[in-house]
Amino acid sequence: MFCQSALPADDVPPGGGGAQCRSCHRVTELMLFPALAGRPPALSVEPAAEGEATCFYSPNRRATKSCSHCGVLISDAWAAQWGSQTVCLKCLEHLRGKGSDARFQTSRTLWDNVALAVALTPFTVVLWFAAFITAPASVFLALWHWNSPRSMVPRSRLRLVLALLLGVAQLGVGAVLFLKVWFRPS
Fold first, then answer.
1. N or C: lower Cβ tally within 10 Å for the chain?
2. CA 51: distance to chain centroid?
3. Three-state DSSP class for residue 82
């Protein structure tokens, strides 16, 4: 059990490492965030020299990069690293507002679950008669959303395959029953 006493700041080695508690003498391994070790680096505010490019958004700053989306020249203050691209803050806000970039999505419709639920609906006691609607619907959903993003975390197509198989099986059973009733010998 830990004694839960606070470690004095002078006991913590710079950059992290092992520190011994003065109360219980237990050694604790610490990892510090780089920002805690010192002040974050300040952005340069140096003005552009004669003939140098200036930032599109802050004309008093020297341009150091260009935006990968809109192509404007920007300073370090207006630049953001987005994956392997450098974008300006306006484009980053535009991407976030539009929701076109998958990295900004916070939720997704799990179409594989929807297709499987539709395929399993006739197996309930109450809704067995709905198979003539749910069977083609589950086949349609499984095929239509085959290449849709499945989840925010890696996930297989197993539910889509099950929904497809159940829907085709229900269609097959429905076709056999229909043919037996329709072409029944009189």
1. C
2. 43
3. strand
pLDDT at position 143 is: 92
Q: What are phi and psi of 70, to 5 degrees?
A: -105, -15
Angle at 141 between CA 170 and CA 171, to 5 degrees: 15
**What residues in the chain have per-residue pLDDT under 70?**
1-2, 14-15, 34-45, 99-102, 186
Within the chain, where are the H helices?
Answer: 34-37, 89-98, 111-120, 131-144, 158-182
Under the phi-then-psi rule, with left for phi > 0, alpha for psi from -120 to 50, and beta for the rest, what region is 71?
A: left
Q: How far apart are CA 73 and CA 84, in angstroms?
A: 17
pTM higher than 0.85 = no
Domain layout of the chain by residue ranges: 1-41, 45-106, 111-182
Is the Cα dihedral 50, 52, 58, 64 positive or negative? negative
Give long-range contacts, CB 8 A cutoff, 24+ apart: 59-68.
Answer: 67/91
Residue 55 tokens read as 């930032």
Q: Are 76 and 44 in contact (CB under 8 A)?
A: yes
